[in-house]
Amino acid sequence: MPLMPKRIKFRKQQRGRLRGNATRGNYVSFGDFGLQALEPHWITARQIEAGRIAAQRFLRRQGKIYIRLFPDKPVSKKPLETRMGKGKADTDFWAARVKPGTMLFEIAGVPESLAKEAMARVAHKMPVRCRFVGRRLAV
Amino acid sequence: MSHETPTIAANQRQQVGTRYARRLRQAGRIPAVIYGHGKDPMAIEMDEKETLTQLHMGSHVINIDVDGGSVETCLVKDLQFGYLGDNVIHLDLTRVNLDEEVTVNVQLNFSGSPEASKKPGNILVFDMNELEVRCKVRDIPEEIKVDLGNMLESYNVGELTLPDGVEALTEPETSVARIQFVQEEDLDQEAAEIEGDSSPEVIGESDAKADGDGGGEESSSD
Fold it and tell me: What is the C-alpha separation between B103 and B56, in angstroms, rounded?
C-alpha cells in the first residue's frame, strides 16, 4: 500500500516552494549504501512504492531496504471538465518534498555491486537524477 | 594508537571567511581551525589530499606543523561537509595532551560471516558501524576488529574485545549486529491493499462531529 500519514491536522496544504539544498537526511545513516537525489522535486507515494518493489524484486530476500523519505504532503487536483472556482479540490495524491542531497533509499547487507544494481533499478522509477553513494567519513 | 602520529604541514590563515575558504579549496587546500587548552583559536589551512588520506586511514590524532614552527598535537573533533553531505570542506581540531582522556567514535571493522546468515531469507544487519569509547589520546585505536564467525543470533557491545585502556561508553546490551529474517513479499496481497486505498484521519474533525451529533456529550474517539 502506498505510504501516507495515518492522522493529519489539516486536510489540504498550500503548494509551497522547494528552495535550497537538503541540510538534514543527506547522508547514509542506516544502511551501507544509498541513493541520493540531485534535483528538487515532489516524489509521489506511488513512485516511492514502485522504487521499493523494484529493489525488493531484484534482491529477492537479500539485504534490507530503508526508505528515507515519507510522502506527507497532500496534493489536490480538480476533476476533469470542472469549472474553475468552488473551492480547493480533494487530495489526489501524497508526495514527499525532495531537495538536492536528500537520501531517498538505503540498502544494507548486500555487496556493493548488488546494491548498485538494485539502486539503479530504483533510480529508474524516480522523477529526479540520482547518484549512488556509500557511507561518509566519520571521526 | 598503533602507529606513529602523522604530521601534516599547515599554514596559518590570515584571511578568513567564505570567499577565502572557497579559494583555498579550489587550490587543493582545506581550511581548519585549532582551539582548546585555554589558548586562542587559530585558523589554518592544510593539504586536502594528505589530510583526507589520514582521515580515511582512521587517524584521530594529528600533529599539525604550523608554518614550520610550532607543532600542535590535535584531535579531530568535527568535520564539516559540503551540500551533498559527503565532501569534507572544513575540520575542527582541538589541542590535546597524549595522556588526556577523551571520548571518540571508533570505526568497527567486521570480519567473518555467521552460519545463520547463510540460510535463505536470513540477512546480517549491522546496528552500528562505530563505537563511542573513552580512553587516553595515545591509546585511541584506528579501528576495532569484530569477528562475527561464531555469532549466533546477535552480537552485543559487551562481547567486543577492546584494546587495553579503552572503555566502551555504549551499554553492553546494545546490539552491534544481528541476524534478521526477511519475509517474502506477497504480491497479490499488495495489489489488494493498493485497491483498498483509504484517506487519513483528520485530527479534531471526528471530535467535532461527535460533539455535534451527541449534543455536547464527551467524545470517545481519540
Answer: 19
What's phi and psi for B116, nearest 5 deg?
-60, -30
In this predicted model, what pLDDT tens digit does every residue of A103-122 receive, in sequence order? 999 998 889 999 999 999 99
* A133–chain B nearest CA distance, Å: 9
Task: Choose the closest CB to A2 out of B125, B185, B194.
Answer: B194
Asked if B203 and A9 come within 8 Å (Cβ–Cβ), the reply is yes
Q: Which of A5, A27, A49 sits opposite B85 (nearest CB)?
A: A27
Angle at B81 (CA atoms; ends B5, B100), nearest 5 degrees = 35
List of domains in chain B: 7-96 (2.40.240.10), 104-184 (2.170.120.20)
Radius of gyration of chain A (CA): 17
Residues of A in contact with B202 (CB under 8 A): 7-11
Q: Could you identify the residue written with the cell 474517539? A: B221
Domains annotated on chain A, with CATH: 33-75+93-134 (3.90.1170.10)
Shortest Cα distance from A108 to chain B (angstroms)? 7
> Which residue in A8, A26, A62 is closest to B123 by CB distance?
A62
What ipTM, to 2 d.p.? Answer: 0.81
Stretch B54-76: mean pLDDT, rounded?
A: 90
Q: Which three cell numbers stand for residue A43?
A: 516524489
